[in-house]
Amino acid sequence: MLGASLGLAYLAYLYYADTPWTRDGRVRVYTVQVAPEVSGTVVRLNVKDNQFVRKGDILFEIDPGTFRNAVTQAEGALDAAKAQASYLTGIADRTSRLTDLAATPQQRQTTRGQADAANATIVQMQGAFAQAQLNLERTTLRATVNGWVTNLLLQEGGFATMGQPALTLVNADSFWVEGYFEETQFPRIADGDAAHVTLMAWPRTPIRGHVTGLGRGISVSNATPGVQGLPTVNPIFTWVRLAQRVPIRIELDDVPCPIVIAAGMTANVSILDTKAPGAPPPDGRPRIGLEAGFPCGQGRVVGRKGRQ
């Protein structure tokens, strides 16, 4: 019995020493902050907090009345500029055909300059008209990614301010895990290595993944500039040196049922001494991307709609 215990302890030591692993892992995700590019009253709010939306879905609409009026005004100004340019161009053409007794060179130059200025005004009015149309289109805000609405700050009837975030979209197709490994483990980690990830909520259900990147830098306290712009170096140096933790990015190959992932979850990460095979899971289809954010069976239906 004692021998078996010692053998198990030795195997556990070998696993700890030879297999890079960490309990300091987090589920990460990209987010998109949605802020209107025009200001106005919200007349229609199509979403609620934590709702899933597909790319292209309308999130909310700003009162378009003022912007429709701006389009009409810009269109009228453009038509007036075209009419003025046509009139002045005709005068310049007729003046240029007159004899020297009927028109002086100064008159020809003046009429041609007025015509050129009028044509330049047309270009200016075309830009104003295009901008007015663009602002009208911007009164309707759509989802730019598949994901979940979070941090919704708007209400129907409220005022949306240009450039001020109104909500955030959690990009459902961008989940990954970041494990923070001690620097002493780096010699045994390489891009493409297979990885096993377990979440605190589902400790007995591993997630398959692979290494896609090693962090190339972390903050160094001694490099922080002081009052004089010089590095602030800690004068105390202990004999015990702690290994720094550096982030390793793990892309998820398959998230098995019943796991539902969310950004910020705690993860244990182990790096295997093999390359990720890329083999499909037992059911023949990996569960990745937005599907991993839904209970099993729901994400595939939504995923197909989201990729139309």
TrEMBL record:
Highest taxon in the source lineage: Bacteria
Occurrences of domain p-hydroxybenzoic acid efflux pump subunit AaeA-like beta-barrel (ranges): 174-271
Pfam family, one: Beta-barrel_AAEA
Keywords: Membrane, Transmembrane, Transmembrane helix
Annotated GO CC locations: membrane
Domain Multidrug resistance protein MdtA-like barrel-sandwich hybrid: 31-170
Record's signal peptide: none
GO molecular function: transmembrane transporter activity
Tagged with keyword Membrane: yes
InterPro entries assigned to the protein according to its UniProt record, in alphabetical order: AaeA-lik-b-barrel, MdtA-like_BSH, MFP_Efflux_Pump, RND_pump_MFP
Family affiliation: Belongs to the membrane fusion protein (MFP) (TC 8.A.1) family.
Annotated NCBIfam families: RND_mfp
Protein name: HlyD family secretion protein
Organism of provenance: Methylobacterium nonmethylotrophicum
Lineage: Bacteria, Pseudomonadati, Pseudomonadota, Alphaproteobacteria, Hyphomicrobiales
